[in-house]
Amino acid sequence: MANSLSKQGLILVYQGGNNAKAERLIREALSITEKKLGNRNPKYAEELKSLAVVSIAQKKYDDAFNALELAEKIWVAKAGKRNNINAAEIYILTGDLFYHQYNYAKAEEYYNKASRLYKKFFNDQHPDYVNVISKLSKVYYMQGNTRDAEDKINEAIDSYNIYIKTL
Q: pTM higher than 0.90, yes or no?
């Protein structure tokens, strides 16, 4: 049930819908998960990431940072600090937070952390790696670094094409 509520909330956010309702749904999912599994369970960390997505959409950046920080602590406790692929999505969301706050240097830092993990665990054609490379392209563009922005977007396009051909 918690998973369904969380997904409903994310759908509302991604469709540009009622963010307040999305937050209520995800908070309900968090409550259910906490009661059933505890607040140190990786599933709880996943719900926290969903809450961070909603918080970013609502421009509640402190709430998003707090949710991501707690999610990361849970994953580090479960899987360790090194080589933790679960941290990659947290890094992307943290990069998104900094991007929305116009702190492009910090966004770049977190996107690079995520890209290294995705490339290490998967490869440079993996859709999540390509997604973060696309985000880096936007950061470089916003920083006025059009050469690197063009290089990254071309890398992303080439990787997408290779990935599609292997399906």
A: no
Rounded CA Rg of the chain:
17
Cα-based distances in Å from 140 to 78, 86, 101, 159, 165: 34, 25, 15, 19, 28
**124-151 average pLDDT score:** 94
Read off the DSSP letter of residue 70: H
Could you identify the residue written with the tokens 């990659």? 88
The whole-angstrom separation of Cα 78 and Cα 12 is 30
pLDDT-derived band of residue 155, with 50, 70 and 90 as boundaries? very high
Number of H helices, E strands in the chain: 8, 0
Which residue, among 85, 77, 67, 78, has the nearest Cα to 29 in the 3D structure?
A: 67
Listing DSSP states for 78-132 in one string gives HH-STT-THHHHHHHHHHHHHHHTT-HHHHHHHHHHHHHHHHHHS-TTSHHHHHH
Interior angle at CA 66, CA 65 and CA 71, nearest 5: 95
